[in-house]
Design a protein that fits this description.
2 strands, two-stranded antiparallel sheet, elongated
Length: 188
């Protein structure tokens, strides 16, 4: 029988964590902020998945979750893990999948001519939260990219994913016949 993998290793008790490739960094390192935020995003995408019955969206979101694991792995790799990055690609095709899905949703959605508040049905609201976490992940990845080499497709994918999550939130409300709530500035 194989030995079960233990969740606790005690190696992080000194405030460091191991990267893929073997080096150790402090737990507040920007690399950890980047892939930790991607992990948080993945959990929020899971919330959207748990709240929608839209089969097409569920399929896309499941693919997104897998791609977020790939992106997190890329961000968790040090310079000794270079060959592994090639085995886990994030490609222009992955980005195009999100763009095509948005195009399909745009075909049925009403034109947006005002800002909307992030609300609606539960699945749409979860998508809005995921979108905001996605934007934070993008900021962390861009910050990391200012210090280390980061595949630009990761940045593009995360950027496009936040757009997709916004459009998806609209589509989920549209399908439930829930009207969008326009933002009103409060000025007379």
């Amino acid at each position: 029988m194989e030995k079960e993998v233990r969740i606790y290793t005690k190696t992080g008790d000194d405030g460091t964590t191991g990267l893929i490739g073997g080096s150790r960094v402090k737990k507040f390192d920007i690399r950890l902020e980047a892939y930790g935020t991607v992990d948080e995003l993945n959990s929020h995408v899971g919330l959207v998945l748990s709240a929608t019955d839209d089969d097409r969206a569920r399929g896309v979101l499941t693919e997104v979750q897998s791609k977020l694991f790939v992106i997190g792995a890329h961000l968790a790799m040090d310079e000794n893990a270079g060959a592994l990055k090639e085995q886990l690609p994030c490609t222009e095709t992955d980005i195009q999948v999100l763009e095509k899905e948005m195009d399909v949703m745009f075909e049925v959605l009403p034109k947006l001519d005002h800002f909307i508040l992030p609300t609606g049905c539960q699945a749409a609201s979860f998508a809005h939260v995921a979108r905001t976490v996605c934007r934070r992940a993008e900021r962390r990845i861009v910050e990391l990219a200012s210090q280390l080499s980061v595949d630009q497709n990761l940045v593009k994918y995360i950027n496009r994913l936040s757009d997709y999550l916004f459009v998806l939130s609209r589509k989920l409300n549209f399908d439930k016949k829930i009207a969008e709530t326009p933002w009103i500035s409060g000025k007379d």
